[in-house]
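Duplicate of earlier report; SSD domain-containing protein input re-posted below.
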Amino acid sequence: MNSADAHHMPSDSFGLVKLLPFKTKGHAWAQHCIWYGECGNSTILPEKKYNCNYTGPPQPLPKEGQDLLKELCPGLAYGSQSVCCDTQQLNTLKGNIQLPLQYLSRCPACFFNFMTLFCELTCSPYQSLFLNATEFSPDPAHNSTNVVKLSYYINQTFADAMYEACMDVQAPSSNVKALGLLCGRDSSTCTPTNWIQYMFNTDNGQVPFAIDPVFSGTPTNETFGCTESLDDGSGPCSCQDCSQACGPAPAPPPLPPPWTLLGLDAMNVIMAFSYAGFLVVFVGALLGAWCYRKRTITSEYGPIQDSNQPLSLNNESIKSCSDLLGERFESALRELFSRWGSFCARRPLLVILVSVVLVTACSTGLAYMRVTTDPVDLWSAPGSRARQEKDYFDQHFGPFFRTEQLIITTPWTNWTSFEPTSGPPIPFSPILTLDLLFQVLDLQTAIEDLEADYNGEKVTLEDICMSPLAPYNNNCTILSVLNYFQNSREVLNHTFGDEFYTYFDYHTHFLYCVSSPVALDDTGHFHDPCMGTFGGPVFPWLVLGGYEGTAYSNATALVITFPVNNYLKDTDKLGKARAWEKEFVEFLKNYSNPNITVAFNSERSIEDEIDRESNSDISTIVVSYAIMFIYVSVALGRIYSFPRILVDSKISLGIAGILIVLSSVACSLGIFSYAGIPLTLIVIEVIPFLVLAVGVDNIFIIVQTFQRDERMQHEELHQQIGRILGDVAPGMFLSSLSETVAFFLGAMSNMPAVRTFSLFAGLAVLIDFLLQISCFVSLLGLDVQRQERNRLDILCCVKLSDASEEKTDGVLFYFFKKMYAPFVLKDWVRPLVAVFVGMLSFSVAVVDKVDVGLDQQLSMPDDSYVLDYFGNLSAYLHTGPPVYFVVEDGYDYRTSDGQNRVCGGVGCNNDSLVQQIYTASLMNNVYTTPSSWLDDYFDWVKPQSSCCRYYNATGTFCNASVVDDSCVHCRPMTPDGKRRPNGTDFTRFLPMFLSDNPNIKCGKGGHAAYSAAVQLKDNGTAVGATHFMSYHTILNTSADSISAMKMARQLAHNISLSMGLANRTYHVFPYSVFYVFYEQYLTIAHDTALNLGVSLAAIFVVSTVLLGFELWSAALVSLTIAMILVNMFGVMWLWSISLNAVSLVNLVMSCGISVEFCSHIVRGFSVSTKATRVERAQEALSHMGSSVFSGITLTKFGGILILALSKSQIFQVFYFRMYLAIVLLGALHGLVFLPVLLSYAGPSVNQAKVKAAQRRLVGTEREHLLNQ
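Output:
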């Protein structure tokens, strides 16, 4: 046997040399060897050999041996090169160091110290000074004696230096430290002493004879620290592999301190003082005005008609150019709508027929309707950065896999304890008891065996799963703790021990695998692998949950993930995946086990649950709209007496009005469907509510104005309807055009949901207005004729006897005119409007505190199984989704400079791509160091390694496990050959690396880990796009996801700059599956301000024009709407409503509905001819307030309350709460604040309009109205 066998690597992909003594001057024995050559087979490990006992002097090596000695142990290659090992021992040594070389050689100092110890042990001519053979056995076959037991005297200082040089070395493909793969335990608990003791322990299944390490003595061999260069010119280790080279540990930038004043939130303080200042100024102004009126007899509030009062501001001589322009514009609108209304009343059938034809033509476009259900299309614009990056990733690396995941917990509370052969007992949580693991394995196996039907074809998991090593290994990727046991009951049940101890069982295998997840051999009695059956590692942080730090045995949850292939355009394969997922969900819904609790989610779960939620809420929506429809139908009529209830009711007219509203929605959908613009669920759910608010309000205004009007003498019905439409249509036009322009401008938004809603809503509101001033006016004329002929509503063929009824004001109109308006505008009540300023101040103070984002839980029904999954996801998981740092096609990896800007090993730049991601992991910005294909490729291609070989005759790749003399190393054992490959060498061997499967001889094969990470082009002769994968930290909230995306983008930007890509057409970008959904939140504050600001500006401009160029009136409308919007943010903060695309759509809609609440009141004030501002405000509130209140507030209120019964959390939060707030705030501001504001600061009366009104009424029986 030779010394190399004594230190044989474990037969796994991350095996190591097990024996590492170090010579000391602890003994005075004569200088001699203790062994030389190989003898008999070991009784502990028969496949290994003992070394032959030999106490003679060192022996010279032949030429072949001298070459090996120079390659492996250059420190011993001096003088006559007489050593205590032969060529065979050196060959065995070379074979045994392959795996440590692949992982430790990333840090030259670490590997130098490692090899120094190994070489001194195996071949040192001074063995007797530090190695004492204590037990022997005969070897008759070789007529010699075997060394079967020995003591190693290892200097503690050297052991510490060796450990310190190696403790930070990374294993890029596994995202863990290499020492964790070589120490038999997690790297955080590995020490110099237990590392060596573990390697020397015969229980590890690799040491062929007993070794007793003794730590003492003074060092005689040179060591190198990881920050030092070696004598052969090798540079210091990189920061990634040597924390000492990094300087001080990076600290995350401190969070910006909260903005405070006087120790309190600054915005709260500022708004509190602002409000206090307002109150002082407001009260002072009121007192000053009161005192002024007491001293002055005449004021602006004098009668408008009394032009002889010298101080009256209403003097008829004061007519500005804008007054005249406004009056003429107003008169033109009045005349236009009067003529149009008269025509519609005269030709009702023609107008109705044309309207029906046009509505039918437009609505036919619904046949081409497409509804967008893909969340990506719904939330991410095609031109957005996240969408473009997603498309790039999908095109070059394939779409992100579909995820089927289980989180398993148990109600059991009994913990167990495992007692290892050394060290304290290790607690194991209940979920890791053997009995429960068997039950979980049965569940996992049942899922693997599920079969689905797709178009008559059987679909199994194997048909759709990810198999990274296919076709060599077709096993499905299953990320499960049971894959440590090869998903086998037999392996899980492996036990080896005696009456005193259990040396190996599932506990020991679990503990080994969580520290060395890529091991192909746990070095135990059964040599069970840790690598999953699919050929890849199973990282503990992906399959365990509910533990602290690295105490994996304390995990309280198991996570099982089945990655399934995703497809961009192959609908057949995607259909198969979805069919199997459906079977998966149904199976788990029906699964029951009292010992385990399963929370689960499928890729299709969220979409399915949203569909189910939408279907379950149809009844709620139908009831909501039915209540509004019934109210409108009943409330439109004015009942004068019970006998005439069926004559005076307007149920048919109300139904017709509602059908017109729905027709406008159908026309909008149809027109855009013709244009190929798809709908969204938000459009379908929100627009009917919006158009119903606008349309019903206008219906009430038209009908109630007619009901309060008296037909003048010699005036026919069509003339009366035309006159009424001339009065009210300009206000309807004002509100509808304001909303339409505001919505169309809102379509400039980058958010698809907002843009689509704005387009459909703007057109629907416009069409609704056009139908109301045409079709509805004609229907009103017909209904009035029916009523005047005493025919029953609906049953118009039935006629009652003629009877005259005296018209009286409606109850609501009477209430507003006689009670509400006078009360609100009393001198002592009006100052209470300051409360609204307080509300505004509060809302401004909290507007920046509204949360941004949309938690996934809110999108699910209350009874959804996915809610349990989301809860467990936050409670148990330790990592977030993978994040890929993509280097776009165009970067040159063939030059040393290009490589140094990317890699993370020796000689790489301190600000390289890998190094910057590693630094980010130290600051907890990402969870793990990156998987670097480039660094692993450099380790794989080294000439010292047996990984990179090819057949000399054909040049094709020769795997490390192949024994064939015709296989030669890719690179020569020369100084140039030991350097990184450049130029054509780089691309020549890279395809071999990406096709190499990991094995016990070479754990660095890149097929499983990197075949999808590197895109080869030009027949494998050039490198295209590549990616470097890490993981985000756990992301529990929307804020976490937004912050993680911002961090990753900033990191990628810094990497691009350090790689010199600032002015290139290619760069580095981060990609994670959730970015397309959360990118909108990076700019949603800006988008919200822009959308609402543009809408307000549009409303101001349209109001200015349609109010007769009265800038001040338009300003008051815009101010009130702005207050409503700001107060909406206050409500959102109080009611925990986050800002996202859904709430932004509602805010844009609230802007439109607010126009309805405000514009009619302001226009009523503007055209009023009353004497004072107070009287003008009272008249506007009396006439318009009742219609607005009945048309919007009461109509919506009943329907909104029904939404509270919805099972959908989105409906409860974003529709019930926000709709209720919109209606209540709109009503309060439109019917309380705005009239009071107009009474204080409304525009002065337009003299030209007053004279025009006088001219219209003089000589008619309505002339008396001028003086009322």
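Residues 1-29, 297-318, 1261-1268 have pLDDT under 50 and may be disordered.

Merging into the original ticket.
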